[in-house]
Structures are given as structure tokens and as C-alpha cells.
Specification:
about 150 residues; mainly alpha
Length: about 150
């Protein structure tokens, strides 16, 4: 199942389907712990503002997607073998849906809970989404190179 054998639409569908291989329960637990810890630090340090929830929620989203995506790439026991093989052959494509979802959700969180406008929240969300994409892509590339 080479890259040239599939259309762009089929590659997108496989990338989205490969996100199901992630360890999302662990990601949710880690995201909740990180978000709660960040909120606790904000409350204890007296950083009271109308956007006290925006930062911790953004951190929780980032760690949720990071652990879910990278954990899914490192797991060997889940999912369809063909889908797993495609994700191993295309680690950057497999990381794109999680990075895109983080970009959209973090933009919404920052614009609704924070003091950012929609454009400012979008540009602020580009950094964590890019970092997630780079980390997940590098981890997947290293994993496939070691095979």
C-alpha cells in the first residue's frame, strides 16, 4: 500500500482513521491532571482574571493530544494491521489530524474562555499545534526507521 497507490482523499481518510489507534484514555487522564495542576497553580499564585481557565484548558488539550497521538504510535497491540502499517509508513500524515484538532479546539478555548479575539487565538494556537505535529512526526519517523 504505497503512497502513490492512493488518492489524496484516501490518504486523508486513512490519516483520520489512524487516530483511532491512539491511547486516548491515557491522554484524557494526563490532560486532566495537567490541566488541574495548571489551574491549581493559577489559583494559588493569585493570577485571577477572566481568562483563568483558558491557559489550563489549553495545556490540558495539548497533553491530551500529545499522549494520545504519540502513545498510539508506540503501541503495538491495537487496531487493524493494515492501518497500523500505513500509519508507520506515513508518520507525518498520521499526526496531521491530531495537530489540526488541537489547532481548532485550542483556538475555540482561547477565544471563548480567554481575552483573545478569534484571529489572535488562532495565531496563538499555531505554536502548540506545530509542536505537537513535530513531536508526533519525529517519534513516528524514528520508530519506522528503527524497524
Amino acid at each position: 500500500m504505497g503512497h502513490g497507490d492512493l488518492s489524496r482523499s484516501e490518504n486523508r481518510q486513512l490519516a483520520v482513521a489512524s487516530t483511532a489507534l491512539g491511547s486516548w484514555r491515557v491522554g484524557a487522564a494526563v490532560g486532566a491532571v495537567v490541566g488541574a495542576a495548571a489551574l491549581g497553580v493559577d489559583v494559588l499564585t493569585g493570577s485571577w482574571s477572566t481568562s483563568i481557565l483558558a491557559g489550563p484548558a489549553g495545556l490540558a488539550l495539548f497533553f491530551f493530544f500529545l499522549v494520545g497521538t504519540v502513545g498510539g504510535q508506540l503501541r503495538k497491540d491495537t487496531g487493524d494491521r493494515r492501518l497500523r502499517r500505513w500509519a508507520d509508513e506515513h508518520p507525518w500524515h498520521a499526526a496531521l489530524p491530531a495537530a489540526g484538532a488541537l489547532l481548532v479546539l485550542n483556538t475555540l478555548v482561547l477565544s471563548m474562555l480567554g481575552d483573545w479575539g478569534l484571529i489572535g487565538a488562532f495565531f496563538t494556537s499555531l505554536l502548540p499545534a506545530g509542536v505537537l505535529l513535530v513531536i508526533a512526526g519525529v517519534v513516528g519517523s524514528v520508530k519506522s526507521a528503527r524497524k
